[in-house]
Write a structure and sequence with these properties.
The complex is a heterodimer of chains A (105) and B (143).
Chain A lengths: L2 E6 L2 E10 L1 H18 L3 E12 L1 H16 L3 E5 L3 H10 L6 E3 L4
Parallel strand pairs in A: 2-3, 3-4, 4-5
Antiparallel strand pairs in A: 1-2
Chain B lengths: L2 E10 L4 H13 L6 H22 L6 E9 L3 E8 L7 H5 L14 H8 L2 E7 L3 E9 L5
Antiparallel strand pairs in B: 1-2, 2-3, 3-5, 4-5
Helix pairs in contact in B: 1-2, 2-4
The chains are: A alpha/beta (105), B alpha+beta (143).
């Protein structure tokens, strides 16, 4: 698992990288929860630009981030989603639960 | 059943093998000249099936996973993922979207994704004996 994050005017951006599967999902879930707890942002952006693959474990990552942000009454936004992750998000219906911007491809 | 080519892999239920399994199937399927979307769908479905073995079939121990792929006539990729784990007591319940016994880290969407990304999906299971997931994907012939 590798990610970078930065906070700017109440907006926390977490840039995920690589392939998100069950092998690394737990670490991502905990790391994102930790950042949200530490910074209590108004908006959390999960940037998928450098993510080449997700399976249903990626859905769990998004759902957990959504729960974390709901607890502090904040918004969750997904950006930079490549076609394969987008197909997984659509098949699961999560694209209807979360705000998505700037789909790639 | 006539087939053009096949491969069989045996590996332990370590989560590091999820990426290995889906990549191995993608490399094998490459000879069928799939589109990027087809390849993505196949990798995702294999990842789901293998993850199920690791999380659910062998919850407390490492066990064996067998992955078999065959290329059937009419450009059909046939994939079997087999374990000798705890089995699924209620397959209909397991297939239901958002049902999971795996807790917060799981979404319960594994079978839903396998169903929507593959042409056919069959699951057979015997509690205490293991589970076999059999899926097929018909690939479009590119002009």
């Amino acid at each position: 698992m590798q990610f970078t994050s930065f906070l700017e005017e109440g907006r926390l951006t977490v840039a995920l990288t690589g392939e998100i599967d069950h092998h690394c999902a737990k670490a991502y879930i905990q790391a994102i929860a930790g950042k949200i707890e530490a910074y209590t942002p108004e908006v959390c952006v999960l940037d998928f630009q450098e993510v080449s693959f997700v399976d249903s474990s990626g859905i769990a990552v998004v759902i957990n981030a959504l729960r974390n942000m709901a607890q502090i009454e904040g918004r969750l936004l997904l950006t930079g989603i490549a076609p394969q992750p987008m197909r997984v998000f659509r098949a699961s219906g999560i694209d209807k639960l979360v705000e998505i911007k700037e789909t790639v491809g | 059943m006539k087939f053009d080519n096949y491969m069989i892999l045996d590996f332990p239920s370590k989560s590091a093998n999820e990426a290995f399994a889906r990549s191995a199937v993608a490399c094998f399927a490459a000879q069928m000249d799939p589109t990027l979307e087809e390849l993505g769908d196949i990798r995702t479905a294999v990842s789901e099936a293998v993850t199920n073995c690791i999380v659910h079939a062998y919850p407390d121990r490492l066990g064996n996973i067998t992955l078999r792929c065959r290329i059937l006539k009419d450009n059909v990729l046939d994939i079997v993922v087999k374990d000798k784990g705890v089995g699924i007591p209620d397959i209909e319940q397991a297939r239901r979207p958002a049902f999971t016994t795996g807790g917060n880290e799981r979404s319960g969407m594994g079978f839903t994704i396998m169903e929507s990304f593959m042409t056919t999906l069959e699951i057979s299971s015997r509690p205490g004996k293991g589970t076999t997931v059999h899926m097929r994907r018909k690939l479009q012939r590119r002009q």
